[in-house]
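User: Teach me something about this protein's shape.
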Amino acid sequence: MLQKLFTAILLIVLSISQLQAQELMGLTQMRDNVKSKRVSSYDRSGGNNDRFENIPDGEKRTVFDVKGAGIINHIWITIAPGPDHLNRNDIIIRMYWDGNQYPSVESPIGPFFGQGWNESYNYASLPLAAGPVDGSGLVSYFAMPFAKGARIEIENQTGRKIDAFYYYVDYVEMPSLPKGTGRFHAWYNRELTEALPNGENEWGTLGPQGENKSGKNNYLIADIKGKGHFVGVNYYVHSPTPMWYGEGDDMIFIDGAAEPTLNGTGTEDYFNTAWCPKDVYAHPYYGYARVNNDIGWLGRTHVYRFHIADPLYFNKSMKFTIEHGHDNALTLDLASVAYWYQSEAARIPAIPGKDERKFMPFIGPVEMHKWRHEWRKNKGGDSKLWGN
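Assistant: First, the predicted structure itself:
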């Protein structure tokens, strides 16, 4: 066990060292007419009240509004009170580029920064992180360019006031963007998926399995129109069954293809892991930030992959889907935030509303015992029924 842990840590350190070497080389390059700027929640009076306070339920608050050209290169946010009193899944963050009245980024703030459901846990990747204490420092290093201004707002949909909202938005101001600079996009989706009509026939437990070549009824991670490249996803799975949820393949359709352009071999395979993992693991490009501690794969899992060295390119469109179990056999509570760049700031689909984002309850020993009780009655109620 210690050897495995040491090997994993060594691989992460080597990967980070390579990335740091590339970044340090970039720091040697001098840039003309570029100036670092910041918008933050600091106390304008010079005092120590460095925050927005008492943001009422239903109110929107602008945290960044800058004209001209530039690139946001760092965001840090922390919020009070904690998730036990204030639902991060019901604080919405939106980003508007180049004077558009529609957002190109829209997501609940927790899932955007890698905090699933309304939980708080440490999370580390190259572009996004949630740092100590217990994931309360929300961080982005995604580059977010704009040519004619940028605006970031939050909306409180929690049903109570936000006591305190602290933030930094760091950016570089420049005369104009380099030619061909894309615009950052992010979109949140959530769906309670439907099982097959004849039951949740995963691993052939209920009989012969079907086939899925077309991607019909797959879960939708992104449906993009335009030219660009896809750079990653945070994927949140809540499973109501101990059965492995990850036999579902990723199926990615590029430039209007009728059949998948990129067809995967399983959920954990797309996320660079193998054999139904339940290990917390952090690589700059992929990992498991939260795993279930329940029976089998019952419960909640957060897995992520970022296409930093291997973006997925498209010229006209890209539709990214994934099965929920093989042949879409399983009922799962799925949510995701997809991240990509496009040649221009595009309108993204509306995200699910507050009622559609409600979490499904946990299933535990009491529920299982009640199901066993009903099964015993169905089998005649013999006092020595075992269950196999």
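Now, about its shape. The chain has two domains: 33-174, 182-204+211-380. Residues 182-204+211-380 form a domain with the Jelly Rolls fold (CATH 2.60.120.1390). If you'd like, I can walk through any region in more detail.
User: That's plenty for now, thanks!
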